[in-house]
Each structure stands twice: as C-alpha cells, then as structure tokens.
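re: ur question from yesterday

yeah so i grabbed the chain u mentioned. its 382 aa long if i counted rite. heres the sequnce exactly as i have it in my notes:
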Amino acid sequence: MSYVAETLSNLIHQTAFFNLTVGNYLMIAVACFFLYLAIKKEYEPLLLVPIAFGMLLVNIYPDIMIHPEDASNGVGGLLYYFYQLDEWSILPSLIFMGVGAMTDFGPLIANPISFVLGAAAQFGIYIAYFMAIFMGFNDKAAAAISIIGGADGPTSIFLAGKLGQTGLMGPIAVAAYSYMALVPIIQPPIMKLFTTKKERQIKMENLRPVTKLEKILFPIIVTIVVCMVLPTTAPLVGMLMLGNLFRESGVVRQLQETASNALMYIVVILLGTSVGATTSAEAFLNVSTLKIVALGLIAFAFGTAAGVLIGKLLCFVTKGKINPLIGSAGVSAVPMAARVSQKVGAEEDPTNFLLMHAMGPNVAGVIGTAVAAGTFMAIFGI
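ran it thru and got these structure tokens back, copy pasting raw so excuse formatting
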C-alpha cells in the first residue's frame, strides 16, 4: 500500500497544479482571452491563435522552451528550436516574402502619393524611440521597442534580433502582434477624433489602371533603390519584393502559390507559437514589459494620428480629392489597417469604397517600417 500511495503521490506532484505560480495562472488567463478575441471576435486569428496557444503551453509546461544547456539530456524544448529561427531572422524574412506574394502593389503604383502617407505613419516609431530612452532603456533597446509603432510583428522581431535585444524580443513581438490584431479597436476612435464627418464622406476617384510592365519593374526598382541606400534592409525589403515579383512576373506561378500559401502558413505557425512561448510569467510579468506595452500603444496611436493628419493636409492641398481616413492605413498591418479605413468610411456613407485607395498607404507602410528598421541598424553600425 505504501508503494501505491508513494507512486500516486509522485504522479500527483508531477502535475502542473503543484508547479505553477500565480503569474503562470495569470498568463494562462491572458492566453485564453487572446483565444477568445481570435476565435469569437475574429481579430487576426491567423496570428492570435498560434501566439495564444504558445503562451498557454509555456505557462503550463515551461520546459517546452528550455535551452539545451539547461536540459538533463542536452536536448532543448520543441518551441526553443522554433524560436531560434526567429532569432536568426529567418522566419520574419520568409513572412515578408509571403506578404509580397499575396499583395497587389497596384494601388501604390497608381497613386504614388501613398508613399507620403506611409512615411507619415512611421512618425510614432521615432516618438516611441525618444520616449523609451527617457524611460530608461538603452538606445538599442529603445530602437527595438519603437518599431512596434509600425504594427509590424516580423520587422519588430527582425530588428530586436539584429540589435542583440533577444531578452526583450518576447514582449516586443507579443505587443506588436497584439496591436496588429487590435487595429479594429484602436484605430477608429483616433481616426474619428481627427476628422470631420464631411471629410470621412469624401469619395475618391477610381485609381488608374496599372500596366503589367509597371508591376514587374516596381519590385526590381524598389529593391535596387532602397537596398542601395540602406543595404541592411535587404533581408526584409528584398524578400518582400521577391515575393511580389513571383506574383507579377507570371512565369513562376508555382513559387508564388507556395510562398503565399503553404510556406506562409507553415512560417506563421512556427513564428506564432514561438513568439507566444516567450511569454512565460517569469519573463513577461515585470515592469519592463509594462513599459514596452505602453510604449507600443503610444507609438501606434501617434503613427495612426500622424497618417490621418497628413491625410488631412493632402485633402486640403488637393481640394478634397483625398479622404484623410486612408492615412491611418500607413501602418503596416496588411491588410487589416486598409479594411479599417474602409469600415470607418462606410459607416458614414455605405456607398463609399476606400479599400483599394487605402491599400496604397498600407503597402507603403510595410516598406516604410522596414526602412525605419534599416535606418536604426545603419545608425548603430549593424
């Protein structure tokens, strides 16, 4: 009987109930909330479901992220190896290739002024950079944190790895992806605050047709120009444009389909679960994380406001030909931010279709955030 009792006692004490902290239970609750947002509210489920599940797993079984040196058998946890692909910048670069293969750059080519709106929405990044330094972060950490303002998870992970801020990569990535998912909640109040009803009702002229030659030349020219000026952007901008060239060339349909479907979804699974697995209670529940989350929100809000305000300026200059709402799409949450511009505009006038107009600044924002990351790397000599 004593053997049976001892065996049962050992089994019981091996359960997670006897090993979890209050912090672990709190993070499990946060993971469940994210799953609710993803499944019930459908807020970026492709991102939130794997992130939330990775968060759930690591707080129930921390060894799923154990380093090989800390493991008794010398073998690391499953999600540890996924995470290495984040640190090596492999997964963020592949995500960019998939985005490029999925995205039509036509609206940006047809309306080059979208580059101005995409650039304006990066203003929040630089605001957050100086605020992070003021809050006590060093310059490289501040740069890594500030990229959250672009609402671009892959770029945030990429820059954190390049600047050697792997200790902050988890909170930075989770904040960036969370704000990407929460775009429909965060942006509309800011957009309505800085625009009038009349401005939100502005209907824009149809975009001009873009030729096949233009679409083929665009990724090649952007790669040459941007990467010549900022070579450090090559992994992101280069992969983005390569994916788009797959799409527009018309001669590598199999590569385009693989990059935009099978490969893209595999990478999302690996990246999402590994990012979520960085949020163990011990690593995530601290003052630095709270600062990062707050700075990310501030950066994102300032970026959205700057895009809308520059949109208002362009509306004035063009005598009402540009709806300021499309400026908010200058953050690089593709295509969610463009959809939000469409939704807010349609609330004022159901016959107003802004989606394709907003895709221009949205795509420009992806390039703009990558350029901002490259600028920081150039500043620090990376």
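noticed a couple things. The first helix runs from residue 2 to 14. also The mean pLDDT is 90.
anyway ttyl
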